[in-house]
Every structure is written in C-alpha cells, then in structure tokens.
Amino acid sequence: MQKLQGLYAIADADCIGTDKIISKTKEVLAAGVKVIQYRDKVNTRDHRYKNAAALRRLTNNYKCLLLINDDVQLAKSIDADGVHLGKNDASIKQARKQLGKNKIIGASCYAKFENARTAINASADYIAFGSFYPSATKPDAPRAKIELLTQAKQEFNIPICAIGGITPKNATNLLTAGADMIAVISAVFNASSPKQAVQEYLLLM
User: Fold this and answer.
1) In this structure, what DSSP letter does residue 111 have?
2) What's the predicted TM-score (pTM) here?
3) Rounded distance, CA 171 to CA 120, Å?
4) Alpha helix segments (H runs only) across the chain
5) How confident is the model over 74-102, as a mean pLDDT?
6) Superfamily of domain 6-202
C-alpha cells in the first residue's frame, strides 16, 4: 500500500463541475498529487460509474491512490484503492467486510476526538479532522481546533488528514501540529492554474 501522506486532492463533482472533473484531475495528477478522492453527490449512478472508471484509469497511469467518497459498491466495481466515509455513510465495519483487509478506509471525524477513537476501533486506516478554517465547500461545518491533530498524533499510529479552508499560507501550522495529509478541493481544482496551486502545497511537505 502506498503511503498516505502529502496533498490529498478531493475531486468533487458539484464543486468542480461534472464536465471538468476528468481534465482537472489529470492536471493535478500531472503536478504530483498522489492521493485522489472522488466525491459525487449530484450525478446518477451510471454517470458516477463512468467518471470513477475514467479516474481509475488516470490514477493507475500516474501511480496514484484513488478513494471513493461514501459509495462502497462503486469502489468495488472499479477496484478503487478504498473509500472515505462520513457520519451518514456506510459503517466502517460494513465497508471492511465488503472491501477486505487490503483496501483503505478513511473516516471523517469532524471536530471530535472521540470520533477518531471509534473509527480506529472499527478498523479505519486514516482519520480526517476539520474544518480548520472557513470553507467554501462546507461553510457550515463545525470548526476543529488545531490541538486535535497533536492529540491524535500522540495517541494514534495511523495517518491523520486535515481539511477545511486550507491554503499554502495556513497549512504549515496543521502539518507542524501533526497532520500527515492536507485535503483540498476548490483551492486546487478551481485555481486558475491547478498545477501551480499543487506545487505551492507540495513545497510545504
């Protein structure tokens, strides 16, 4: 399994636009991103499968991990590297049963440390905290304290992801506090130059 670290780019169909998701993802992969998540809450199942299959081919070409948000069956059908689950998604234990021990399961823990402990006990491979800063994608998300990252780093031995309004200017604080991955959506995919945006983050890592 590739290491879960560095820049974690979330290809969100609603945020990026369905017609641009493949071309924009290719740009960020070419710039050096090694972890992609496909998130699609707006399209039909057939359309999601088509996009996911195209992203699987792309990520294979770039030797990049591909995780699917929420949809365990979609992840299985395209042989994705794993899934990312939130509080309203399939349970971690159910996902593990369906995907097997070799696939990656990530869990959103929001702003609560206890959520992380629960996720890890259920066999999550990485945990994600946020939102740390105001986020255009999820403006109403509860704000997470940076101390969560330090506490999680001290207690747990799995990768930790930070998400929510993270820019190259504020990312260093999160990395120093204990984040192994920085997750971004619009800051990269909707940048005038996705390549340049990716490179600005990668310089910090």
Assistant:
1) T
2) 0.95
3) 25
4) 13-16, 21-30, 45-61, 72-77, 92-99, 113-121, 147-155, 171-177, 186-189, 194-202
5) 94
6) Aldolase class I (3.20.20.70)
